[in-house]
Amino acid sequence: MGRRPFGIDPETVKHIASEIRRTCETGAEVAVVVGGGNIFRGMEAVSMGIERVSADNMGMLATVINALALQNALEREGVPTRVQSAIKMEELAEPYIRRRAQRHLEKGRVVIFAAGTGNPFFTTDTAAALRAMEIGADVILKATKVDGVYSEDPFKNPKAKKFDRISFMDVLNKGLQVMDSTAISLCMDNDLPIVVFNLMGKSNIRNAVMGRKVGTIIWKGDGKRAEGKDR
């Protein structure tokens, strides 16, 4: 969406595609899960009177639009891609098949997972955690509009504390709105770390993949309290 109030901003999509291309140049296998909030938000639709299952289905279709936009931008960058949808629409995308997705990754293609999990009541956060488990990912990179995990919304409270690393349990106990609790619990149960960072920062995706200090790491923890500093 970029700075637009709605829809797709071509410059933002181009930036994301360029950042993914630079990340692929490291030799990393990259899969992407896209949301659809710039086009349609299921929960907002529910508040307007649309039945929840229908609203969620509409939201999942919005993610397919974004997936196709990202695919086009990536291929303009010279990056081979495949879009796999959890909802069958074979004229537009492959159906999601785990082994096929893994094969695409082995061949150096970026796989874009669309339509969430294919089920209502589950967010794209949960879809990201689920797909990460299925393909054997090493880490989830949660690219967002803030540069890490904070004790409060930093846009509302400039004195909010930023955490350099924090445990899954602390995220749940503190009620931090990083990802939904289902996604956090799934990652915690399977010991899959999450790195939260600003999507628009230059080389942030590449740096996170290369193990450089970017954003906040959410991990299993070692029994110590979450580390943070005031910013």
Short summary of the structure?
The protein has 231 residues and is an alpha/beta fold.
Provide structural commentary:
By secondary structure, the protein is an alpha/beta fold. It has 2 domains: 137 residues, Acetylglutamate kinase-like (Carbamate kinase, 3-Layer(aba) Sandwich); 94 residues, Carbamate kinase, CATH 3.40.1160.10. It is 39% helix and 18% strand. Strands 5, 6, 7, 8, 9 and 10 form a 6-stranded mixed beta sheet that branches. The chain has a 4-stranded parallel beta sheet with strand order 1-4-2-3, sandwiched between helices. Helix 1 packs across helix 3, helix 5 packs parallel to helix 7 and helix 6 packs antiparallel against helix 7. The longest helix has 25 residues. The chain is globular and about 50 Å long. It starts with 9 loop residues before the first helix and ends with a strand. The model has no long low-confidence stretch (mean pLDDT 92).
Q: Kindly state the number of beta strands.
A: 10
* Ends distance: 27 Å
- For this structure, the CATH topology of the largest domain is Carbamate kinase
> Number of folding domains?
2
Identify low-pLDDT runs.
none
Radius of gyration (Å)? 17 Å
Helix content: 25-40%
Report the order of strands and helices. Answer: HEHHEEHEHEEEHHEHEE
Form type: globular
**Mean pLDDT score, rounded?**
92
Indicate the CATH class of the largest domain. Alpha Beta
Give me the CATH architecture of the largest domain, please: 3-Layer(aba) Sandwich
* Major sheet details: 6 strands, mixed
* Beta-strand proportion: 15-25%
Number of helical segments with 4 or more residues: 8
- What is the CATH homology-level superfamily of the largest domain? Acetylglutamate kinase-like
Q: What would you call the structural class?
A: alpha/beta
